[in-house]
Amino acid sequence: MEYRPFEITSITATNLKDVNFFSKMRVYVIVSIVGDSSTSQETPTSKRHGTSPAWDFPMRFFVEESKLQQSWLRLVFKLRCSQRIGDDEDIEEVHVPLKKLFDDAEGRKEIPAGHNYQVMTPAGKPRGGLSFLHSFGETISVKRVSKKVEEVLIFNLEF
Q1: Residue 146 has pLDDT above 60, yes or no
Q2: Residue 90's domain is classified under what CATH number?
Q3: Is the pLDDT of residue 3 over 70?
């Protein structure tokens, strides 16, 4: 099987809905690829508290090459507010077709590209924006092995 590394190196959000009334929001992002094996990674809480947080936190995913040509694979950014008491709260989220990012990056692999997207509230209303830098690496071949061994190989490639 062939996999392509996909890296996100920087994420910035602007004009988010403020869900904390008494203090500045402590926001983090859960980034996942939905439609593959639903792999996800989480940023630490942004050091820039409030409604315009930013993260310089590299993330690397490995996506099956054949699935990059299918339009149902989505990159999902779920912005959440860390709460001192109770459960963390969903703020907003962004869904991006991974095929679009891959097609836009054609011919300039491993060179970071920037994209800006409208952020949607959990109620589906537009609010704020999300920008991120990403790049696709060269294809990595892995011999056909059992699913369990494949997961271990991919995990080890990430570190």
Answers
A1: no
A2: 2.60.40.150
A3: yes
Q: Taken in order 57, 133, 97, 6, is the CA torsion positive or negative?
A: negative
In a domain, 54, yes or no: yes
Residue tagged 């099956």 (tokens): 64
Residue whose token pair is 């959990």: 122
Q: Is residue 24 part of a domain?
A: yes
Number of domains in the chain: 1
Q: Domain residues for 49?
A: 2-154
Using an 8 Å Cβ cutoff, are 91 and 27 in contact?
A: yes
Concatenated DSSP letters for 13-51? EES-----SSS---EEEEEEEETTT-EEEEPPPPSS-SS
Please provide the DSSP assignment of 72-133 as one string.
Answer: T-EEEEEEEE--SSSS-EEEEEEEEEHHHHHHHHTT-TTS-EEEEEEEE-TTS-EEEEEEEE
